[in-house]
Amino acid sequence: MDLHDFPPPNPGARPPAPAAEPVETGALSEYRAALASAHRHALTWLGSVAERPIRPELDADGILATLDRPLGATGADAAAVIDELAAAAGPGLMAMGSPRFYGFVIGGAYPAALAADWLVSAWDQNTGSRQPTPGTAGVEEVAARWLLELLGLPADSGVGFVTGATSANTSCLLVARDSVLRARGHDPSRGIQGAPTIRFLAGDAVHTSVVLAGRIAGLGEPVTVGADAQGRIDVDGLAAALAEHEGPAIVALQAGDVHSGAFDDFTRAVGVAKAAGAWVHVDGAFGLWAGASPRTRHLVAGVADADSWATDAHKTLNVPYDCGVAIVRDEAAMAASLGAHAAYLPALASVADPYDHTPELSRRARGVPVWAALRSLGSRGVAGLVDGLVDAALALAERFRGIPGLDVLNDVVFTQVCLAARENEDTLALGEWLRAEGTVWASSSTWRGRAVVRFAVSNWGTDAEAVRRTVDAVARGAVAIGIRDLPPIPVR
Fold first, then answer.
1. What residues have CB less than 8 Å from 85, skipping those under 6 apart?
2. What is the residue range of the signal peptide feature (predicted)?
3. Quick check: 415 and 393 in contact, CB under 8 A?
4. If exposure means fewest CB atoms within 10 Å of the residue's CB, which of 189, 261, 263, 274 is most exposed?
């Protein structure tokens, strides 16, 4: 089913009953006042995000100076609490939803996704099981099917909505660990003590979330096998490492390097890993979404042959936080590793429950904002979103190259741009100047032996005007700190 051809309602379905006017009880009155206050403050904030300085006005200590006091014995009116919260926290908020915020690979929030997230909180459904929460569980199942279709992944894969990319990587590696041990005759339910040693391999540019996930899963940090200049895994190095030992192995590949945006050669790397009997996991926190656009789909050629995938809908898809996605080809293996069973938990033997796909029993209905974003955009809209982010990154890179004394260090293939002056001190000073000035916020980092200011284009609102204002701010910053047009220096 294509998202832009949404089917009509089932003609045989019973129409919903007209919504009755709520009875104005004391509790409802308190909800109404508190939510009205939240609505007012939310719209004030959203109306200011595009133009306000991106940096916070106060640091954490400044916020604590206002809020850090004894709790007190008596409470306060709910609406007054919301007013107090907005007033106290407001000066410490960063405008992360700004179209000129490029830090940490963070997207914004589409209107439909944000509104759906509010409903998720109001509905207060513990979406662990299909039986008690069929409304939200059903919405999540549709969202999961749409995601698999858009990303070009196997349609019968298991999908779990988790907190973020790190928890998605962790969930997938837990399944990978159990599966490779089970294939070697070890029962994972007995734990990993006495189990065969699992080799965990990755490229040199492996993201820290995969490293952390490996530690949590008991695999340790991955052994790195090399990478090219843009961070793509060295496939020959991977083949050599796999040939050194027999035994269970897990290989972590990458869709979208956090600095360059580069994608591993999945066709070759997956083939090499599979020939050695290894499980292949793909960290696609933001880059897996390249599969949703015909223009960028070539970047993930071969990725569907892997065994598991992790992504984060808060990044490229622009839904609110708390929306990672763990995907495993073998749904039964996912349920065997992550599912929980108890006499009091309702279950159907023939259908997996949401808690079979995540390491949680209690959780909010994270997949509902994903459904809302996808329903709002349609498949062509998602492709347009991806293409727009890529266009903005390419435009930034092209115009940055025209600023004397600055270089773009990476091949811009997706949404990442790494900018540097000829001297590391100047690059660091430029990043600090930009963040203090407030028009633009970009992360400082180190890549290939050079200090860089990294621009991660992730917000759906980053349009031509945002690009213009970003380049203008960078040009002003280069002049302000005295960056000179020196001969280029080699990049290691």
1. none
2. none
3. yes
4. 189
The reported pLDDT for the residue numbered 372 is 98
Q: In what order do the strands lie in the sheet with 450-456?
A: 406-408, 416-421, 450-456, 443-447
Residue type for position 328: V
| Closest to 416 (Cα-Cα) out of 442, 383, 439 | 442
State if pTM tops 0.70. yes
Distance from first CA to last CA of the chain, Å, rounded? 47
- What's residue 8's pLDDT? 42
Give percent of the chain with pLDDT exceeding 70.
93
Q: Are 312 and 109 in contact (CB under 8 A)?
A: no
